[in-house]
Amino acid sequence: MERLIEADLQRLKTETLTAFRLAQAAVDTAVRSVFERDPALADAVISGDAAIDAMECSLDAEVLRMLALHQPVAGDLRAIVGCMRCSGDIERIGDQAVNIAERGLILLELAPQAPPPKLVELAEATRDFLTHTAECFTNLDLTMARRLCEESDEILELNVSILKEMAEVMRDAARPVERAVQVCFIAHGLKRVCDQCTNIAESVVFTREGACSRHRCD
Length: 218
Prior knowledge:
Elements lengths: L1 H34 L3 H32 L3 H34 L9 H23 L2 H30 L5 H33 L9
Helix pairs in contact: 1-2, 1-3, 1-4, 2-3, 3-6, 4-5, 4-6, 5-6
């Protein structure tokens, strides 16, 4: 029985990571659709979201099966619950990718214009966040988990600075408001992706230490 639960745990972790990789790719494609003004990329993100949703449902079913079959305790139970928490966060990352892609389609209706440098910076930071989150989950890396939680404050500051910059644009009646509004939504979507990554990092802390670190990673 012990060998069975070890095999099931490894499969659950692998499937959770696979779902995360899908969501990670969706965010990357969504950002490219905005910066490259490519409607095909945006459509791919939107249509591909169903696969991420399906994987969340599959992970939920697998978690329930393992709980009923193995009746796990201690570290095994935390590992299963940790994956269950992560699956919801992963699905929401996919949703944010869709939101970003949809905003990109709206921007296509406007004249081409280079994205604000801070939005590019936020997109790069989000890409790094996703990469580090995958490493954190794969290795159950507590140091990385706590670093992600600390760096989430920097993401928030960058998002706020973009909102302030766009507010200045909207105050100038001679400049288009619609573009600034969509940039704000995109920036918020990227920030929410990083929030979900932080939640996953908190789940890693829970899995390793059995401590509830939601809302603060310490």
